[in-house]
Amino acid sequence: MRKYKLFGLVIESDIDFLQLMLADQNDSNDVVTVHAGKISEIVDKELEGESVNYKVGLEFSCFRNSYGYYVINGGNEIIYESKEGVDLEAIKAFILGYCIAMLLLHKRTLSIHCSAVCDDNSDNDGAILITGESGAGKSSLTRKLIECGYKVMSDDIAAIKKVTLDGEEKCLVYPAFPYQKLCRNEVEKRSFDSDEIIYINEDKDKFLVPLKDTFIKEPRKLKGMIFLTVCDEKEINVQRLSGIMQLMALKQNLFLRKFYGDWQKDPEILQLCLQISEKCPVYLIKRPKEGDTLSEIAEKVKTLF
Prior knowledge:
Elements: E1 2-6, E2 9-13, E3 21-22, E4 31-36, H1 40-46, E5 54-55, E6 60-64, E7 68-73, E8 77-82, H2 88-106, E9 110-113, E10 115-118, E11 127-132, H3 138-147, E12 151-154, E13 157-165, E14 168-174, E15 179-183, H4 184-188, E16 198-201, E17 205-210, E18 220-231, E19 237-241, H5 243-251, H6 267-278, E20 282-288, H7 294-304
Helix pairs in contact: 3-7, 5-6
């Protein structure tokens, strides 16, 4: 079994995750076990009569797809079973995505579909979440902010947990792994070492690009959120969201938002979303369809937080 670090957890796994940070083999703090098991009958029974191929709960979750079967138990175990002839690389992608998100839910930690960046040179350092519509330029904006001196905590998923420190309630963002996902056109724009980037097939032509010294390994307080979208306007438009819109922006970017179920209406989860959104100012940034406005948007982000 190998040990890795992810979202403040120690992942003890029977398969390799090359993109994850290694953990000390003696580290026994908040260990999550990932291992193979015969679970297809269990999952099929759990989903018998259901119109969907998943069940998300606060203590037990499971799902199945064309690659395999997955069970997530009590916030401390992920079991997988691949279907015959399936490449294990495909299974890994679902473990680090949906399985981890379901496990975090068991631990009352929200997984947000976003990038998380920090300005360590600022007196008011903290994590800024970069969210938005598909194709709006989230990864490109994250890369531009890196070029402006920002550092990255996560790409694709950020884990946010409400904690009490020194008698004060705070929301912390926990780091993922030191790689960023970029599409081929973004990779080709820059001079990356071909020996260091990793090709991944997630139904899109993407690569994992190492972040190296631009990666932050420790948790940071939640500073705010950017929601990026494309519009027909000729200039960049920035709007501060408030009240129910601020809460909805957070809920609509939950990584598990498409996994409909009672968990979404659970009072504990609703309260957690409300408490975190109250500490997360949200700015809607509309960018024009035409032209390269990333540098201008990056400068605006600097002034918002």
